[in-house]
Structure formats: C-alpha cells, structure tokens
Structure to design on (299 residues):
C-alpha cells in the first residue's frame, strides 16, 4: 500500500471519529469541564492559648491542605505567625472568599475547639463551623478531606451565620453573650426535643418529645474574639437521650456513652447554632459523632 492510500485512510478515520473522540473526552474528564474553581484568601488563625511554634505549625497545616485541594486557588494573606484578632470584613476581597480559623482551649479540660470561618462577599456574611477535639494533637492529625468537607458545608450556607455588618464592627451583645443570664428562657430547635429550659446560674434541662428529661450545665467559653456556648449533659445517661439511633442500640450504648454536648455560637438575641456531640448511626452500630443544630428562643 502506498503512502497516499495510507494517508487517505487515516484522514477518513479521524473525520468519522473526531466528534466521537471529543464527546468521549467530556465523559472521561468531567472535572476538567465542570469542576468549579474557588479563589480563597487565607488569613491564618487566632489561637491565644497556644505558643507561637504550635500556632505556626497549625496555620501552615491549614494552608498546605488548602493548596492541595484542586478545586481551590489559594492566596496566602498571613502577615504574622498568628492573628491577634479576627480580621474585619473591610479587609476582605470583593471577588474572593476569605478563610480563617479560631482555635481555643476549653477551660478545665484537655479539649480544644477549632472554628473555621468563611467570608463570602456575594452573600455578605461569615459562615462558621466549630468542631471539638479531645487534644490539640487531634487537630494536627485531621485529613485535608475534613477541611474540604467543612468548606463545602460553608459554601452551601451551612454552619452558623454572621452578617457582614456584624463582622465589620466590634461584637455586640447580640453576637456575643455576656453571661448565662442572657441565655435564660425557653428554647427549641431539634426534631426530637420539645423544649430546652436555661435558668440563671448556668443550669437547665432538656425535655424530649419521648418524655425523657436531661439536666444540663451551661458555660460561656471566651478565647480572644471567639466565643462558644458549651451546654453539657449532667447526671447519668439515659437511652432516651440518644434519639438519633435505634432504641435497641441506645439501650446497649448508653451505659458507656460520653455526656451529650452542644457547642454553640450566638447569631443574634434569639438564635444559637453549632454542633451537637452525641451517638450517631454507623452501619449496624453507633459511634460518637457530631450533628449541626440550630436553637431558637421561644420565650
């Protein structure tokens, strides 16, 4: 076969298969064509309870993990080892997302809370999600997928929300609780709970729709500009408290379960949001986990 005939056959093959080849590339490479790219300015961490070396290590870890996630392009906006305060919204870019973290130690325990915050100029709001860790070391051991999942939640509008105007000014009483007396009253907000009653002095109780009653303690934890409201089950566990799992599992697991705990932030005078640490389903068993919750003041 001469060169002319070979060339003619190749041209014919490509002319017939060209459209099919392009279509196949779209099927095989959806990420190339469909995956959204987010531009993120990273501002670092506020961590008053850790030394500079540990703060630098943690801040670098978050930055490295962000850079390793393909769907983000990251700009390092850090100016120091750790921020002295949460940056004002005025310093954020109009065209990018802005990310920072606040890490604080829970007093009288070895636990830590890391709160990831994302400012989205298009929605004029800061979206935050807090997570509790048994030790600071556990923060450093978190895989980047956990950070990516948190950011995905915040991009979808999840977590606690603070308006842009509140982010640009000093926290007011509506965004920062001065004492447990501010929280006193009746609250609601979970499908399985009839009402939550918080009394002056940092105590209260939860009434479940199944008739169970749980005593709770209420504590305000401040670390720099960050604040968390810690509400913890007091007294013995009851299988009726663990409404996220089956009754059979709850009866088995309640004996050795850790106290249920809520880590919340005040969005305004009448709204608290954050996470609940409890037992959650894990296949045919149960395991400790967290759930997003929102409480609303009833009276």
């Amino acid at each position: 076969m001469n060169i002319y005939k070979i060339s003619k056959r190749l041209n014919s093959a490509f002319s017939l298969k060209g459209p099919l080849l392009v279509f196949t590339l779209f099927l095989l490479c959806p990420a190339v064509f469909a995956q959204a790219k987010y531009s993120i300015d990273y501002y670092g961490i506020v961590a008053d309870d850790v030394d500079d070396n540990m703060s630098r290590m943690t801040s670098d870890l978050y930055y490295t993990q962000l850079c390793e996630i393909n769907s983000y392009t990251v700009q390092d906006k850090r100016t120091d080892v750790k921020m002295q305060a949460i940056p004002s919204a005025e310093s954020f870019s109009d065209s990018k997302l802005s990310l920072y973290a606040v890490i604080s130690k829970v007093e009288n325990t070895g636990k830590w809370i890391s709160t990831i915050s994302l400012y989205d100029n298009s929605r004029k709001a800061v979206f935050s999600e807090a997570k509790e860790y048994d030790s600071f070391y556990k923060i450093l051991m978190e895989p980047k997928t956990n950070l990516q999942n948190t950011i995905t939640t915040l991009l979808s509008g999840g977590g606690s929300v603070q308006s842009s105007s509140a982010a640009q000014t000093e926290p007011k009483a509506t965004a920062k609780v001065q004492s447990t007396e501010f929280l006193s009253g009746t609250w609601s907000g979970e499908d399985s709970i009839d009402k939550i009653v918080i009394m002056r002095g940092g105590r209260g109780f939860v009434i479940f729709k199944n008739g169970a009653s749980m005593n709770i303690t209420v504590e305000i934890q401040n670390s720099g500009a960050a604040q968390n409201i810690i509400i913890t089950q007091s007294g013995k566990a009851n299988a009726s408290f663990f409404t996220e799992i089956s009754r059979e599992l709850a009866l088995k697991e309640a004996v050795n379960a850790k106290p249920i705990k809520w880590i919340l932030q005040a969005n305004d005078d009448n709204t608290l949001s954050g996470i609940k640490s409890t037992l959650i389903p894990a296949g045919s068993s149960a395991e400790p986990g967290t759930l997003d919750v929102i409480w609303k003041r009833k009276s």
About this structure: Confidence is low (pLDDT under 50) at residues 3-7, 13-18, 20-35, 164-175. Helices lie at 3-28, 30-34, 52-68, 136-140, 144-155, 164-167, 247-253. The two ends are 91 Å apart (CA to CA). The chain has seven helices and 14 strands.
